[in-house]
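Hi again,

Forgot to attach this to my earlier email, sorry! This is the prediction with alpha-D-glucopyranose bound. I've pasted everything inline since the attachment limit keeps bouncing my files.
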Amino acid sequence: MDQNGGSKEVMKKSVEKKQTAKKKSVPKAAGAEAAVVKETAAEVKSAVAAEEKSTVWTQAEEAVYRKRFGRHFDELRWLYMELYGNDSMFAELCDNMERFYRERDVELRALDADREACADWYKQNDMLGMMFYIDNFAGNMRGVESKLDYLEECNVNYVHLMPFLETPEGRSDGGYAVSDFRKVQEKLGTMEDLESLTAACHRKKINVCMDFVMNHTSEDHDWARRARQGDGEYMSRYFFFDNDRIPAMYERTVPQVFPTTAPGNFTWLPDAGHFVMTSFYPYQWDLNYKNPRVFNEMMYNFLFLANRGIDIIRIDAVPYIWKELNTQCRNLPQVHTIVRMMRMIGEIVCPGILLLGEVVMEPEKVVPYFGTVEKPECHMLYNVTTMATTWHTVASRDVRLLKKQLDIVNSLPKEYVFLNYLRCHDDIGWGLDYGTLMMDGIGERSHKKYLNDYFQGYAGSSNSRGELYNADPLTGDARFCGTTASMCGIEKAGFEQNDAAMEQAIQLDIMLHAYMFMQSGIPVLYSGDEIGQVNDYTYKEDPLKAADSRYIHRGVMNWTLAERISDPATVEAKVFGGLKKLEQIRKSEKVFVSNADTWTIETHEPGVLCMGRYFDGDKLLGLFNFSEFDKTAWISEDGTYIDLFTGNEVKADSVQMPAYGFCYLKKMG
Ligand code: GLC
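Structure tokens for the complex follow:
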């Protein structure tokens, strides 16, 4: 298959197939019409549509399902029994998997088949993601649908719709406290709007990602309400304790996620006379996956959502889903059993979907979530340590730690796909390789303080702006929040109306994107970053958000500013234009495919990083100057190269790098 633009090709083929599939399903639908006598045309139509959805099950499709099921049955049953030892619950799971397959739209089934036939569809060089909150981006789901042309203009073919399921206002943790997994927040639309949006995205070859928050539910979820009323069946779906003896035992070994905004891992419910486990906010109740009912029901929710046309399921907070006393309650072996089962369930019912694991931890904890080549778990994981190390490099102007980190990632199997990003909706935690930094006499606590001071604009020659997140007075630890543009100095330069500083800030911003695009995997932008949008301080005026500084970088998309991308003199046009050029190069050069060879090259200049890529005869060098001074990259690579930005022929020998400059050099001949 053509590597270049391959994922588009798969989507196109499936659109063609689905038309044939639709034709095939007509006789069944017509049969249903005769059987059901309906009074109005509308009723008949909806009955036919329902019939079409639930019973299209040609012999060929049944055979496909049986084959997929047969492929995984033994392992799935083995793992399920190992965890639950419950035959009837396993049988129920199997029945429901088949039901969800039957209900799956013919168009989605066609896409599944194409993707199964081209398993590398998401590893192509045209992949580019963007994440946003639906209301911030375009008001509601219909609004997003009306903005698809803009997304296309951004070269985006993967949108991550931040949590949009029902959640209580003011107790939502940005939507990560779900009270109904089958209902869209009213202000954002309906399930039908979601289906319409995913279908519209598919017509434009855009993949849709959503969060599957499976570690916990909102305290307003029906199960939680019943549990609170003392219904044992539902209490057993959470962790309930009538005194603090066991919670206190857990607290000895379980770290805190939000030490300042939500300390502790349990919440006392005075009305219920019980403690409930709440690793995140007190209104987010941890689900108990030791109960097979919880696993089964959550799998049905997963399949229900997949059937709405979702392509990528982001498994939120996945390391936390299994709890055991006397452990940290993170990354336990049972978590991997569950993710592996999820992967198999997906491959049986809806193999076109991808699992993206949210594992915000050090590399040795992240990588196991890919599983093994024979028994894979997640398709994609966040490249979180690389992201944090990038900002350390911005502050220190010293690429050595980043080079080491990239060497670790580059040494992993090429099948692994990372999601690369400069920042997301969450804070940046300083999870760096302190063992290595220590060899230069850099201690963890003082360095974290330095980075936090730096990015707040207090230390060194920093132009960054932003705020701390969950500063823990006990450990001295704090994380950081800010948009890419603000962290690069665009906010400060704009405020001070300093043109020279602005040019430099824009240069740094684009250089960081160029470097991020050079990494293997899927680059994902946070909406607004493509126009250099700065921090939004208005969250402080909203009592429901004021305590959570992550809202500083979750601002509303400023469409008035976005209009300026057509005026080349503006900041927005410069950032947008710079990124667009990078995106075009990335999707036209096959060397950017995810499974290319990648390595780093010593530049003998601490400020400059050099990365190499090789694929199918093409070789590319990327050079990135993390310093505000002109530098020379002391490399000496054979041959003649073409600078993909200027089109000039150059030698890859003692390359002159302007302040915050970058280049992509492609070997000729
Ligand atoms: C994930 C989300 C984060 C949320 C947490 C709890 O880490 O990215 O925003 O607070 O899960 O659900």
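The longest strand covers residues 631-643. The chain has four domains: 3-115, 126-216+293-431+472-591, 222-285, 595-667.

That should be everything now.

G.
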